[in-house]
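Subject: Interface between my chains keeps coming out wrong

I've been trying for a while to get a sensible model of this assembly. When I model each chain on its own everything looks fine, but I need the whole thing in one frame so I can look at the contacts. Pasting all components below, labels as-is. Any help appreciated, I'm running out of ideas.
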Amino acid sequence: MATVRVQEAPFDLAQETAALAAGRADAGAVASFLGICRADDGLAAMVLEHYPAMTERALARIAAEAEARWPLTGCTVIHRVGRILPGEPIVLVLTASAHRAAALESCAFLIDWLKTKAPFWKCEEFADGARRWVAARAEDEAAAARWVAAAADAPARRRREPERTTG
Amino acid sequence: MATVRVQEAPFDLAQETAALAAGRADAGAVASFLGICRADDGLAAMVLEHYPAMTERALARIAAEAEARWPLTGCTVIHRVGRILPGEPIVLVLTASAHRAAALESCAFLIDWLKTKAPFWKCEEFADGARRWVAARAEDEAAAARWVAAAADAPARRRREPERTTG
Amino acid sequence: MRVLYFAWLRQKVGLAEEEAAPPPEVRDVAGLMRWLAARSPGHAAAFADPRQVRAAVNQEFASPDTPVAPDDEVAFFPPVTGG
Amino acid sequence: MRVLYFAWLRQKVGLAEEEAAPPPEVRDVAGLMRWLAARSPGHAAAFADPRQVRAAVNQEFASPDTPVAPDDEVAFFPPVTGG
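Reply #2:
Try treating it as a single job with all components included. I did that and got this:
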């Protein structure tokens, strides 16, 4: 049910929100997270690389996990790749539910898991020509780990571990 | 710094998001919560009443509390009043920060406090002509209370209690 | 003293606002509620269950023991349900 | 076996992908990393600190002891930094 996209083009927040809520009389709450390329000192652009054969599958799995944990009426994850300028959006997570707790929690969950479980890599390009691969942050691992603890606290909910497939 | 508005007219999510991020090179994360009038069985409209002399002041205080607790680069709270049809938006909370945790947490905080600390009342109008004032939910009190506990856990942050003024 | 009513309290009282001049022994929100309840059957119905009534004094949320004075604006309403 | 490299591993190896035919004693991700590291100075640099390297086997995140087989697609990359 979730909408998952990887694209170079910018996305339209209003259009995606309208699409999520369209025809869903039971959506009382829509939460969103928009990640934007900050204009840090001297940053000229951010280049997003990904692993095409794996990315959409990873995003779909993360979205399916959110849908298994919360009663969502809609879920959209869009991640841009390629060259992104300061001030431009990078990622959008949208969740809808009857009530706000499910929408807000699942939105936070999705961006936390996306940060640690989807194959994207950011390379910063600076005005002076320097390039630097962004390092993973320990805080991101900790933020993702709290949802594993949360799932362990709720034994009725099935916890999924990454599986190796041969497909 | 926060933008707080009470209005009958619908609001434009994309426009409000753009206004929040405009000229802020330091905003890397924008979180939003959109409350929508659900099309519950037989609901014809929701009528939102408020206490005009008090409402914007209450919203501004709630927004100021969020800005005191998190390092926000922007904060917008818009609440509609009057007659609202199923599917239409009721409330918008937008928060921006350098990093996602501050944006996501403050967004959840704002809607939780708004639900219990701002003078709005909802009256449901049904297709058969019946009207019913929506009752306050105990869960909303509990959701708001967890932020008081969170503030008590962080003694360095000033906790504000409602004050009586004579103004 | 200006007294305002909202939501179902407004409907039960039958007024959105009224002027009131309670006697000096009415010193706080709880006392004002008891005094107002005696004004009419509508007032009595509105204040029949004080646990369902919230108040604000001069646009700030108040508790039953919040003082009230002649120049105050006092509002009564059910628990809020916005958002 | 198809081997893919992303981000700074791609830059250090100097290739986005290559075919590899490791000997039968290369049975898992850790063994493959050691075997690949001997292919060129670029490979050696890419795998110099195995703790900085993550892997996927057939598009699923893998650990050092995940088995690898001749028909697999194995990818190496740094910890992910999307979002």
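Reply #3:
Confirming on my end. The domain at 2-77 of chain D is CATH 3.10.20.30 (Ubiquitin-like (UB roll)).
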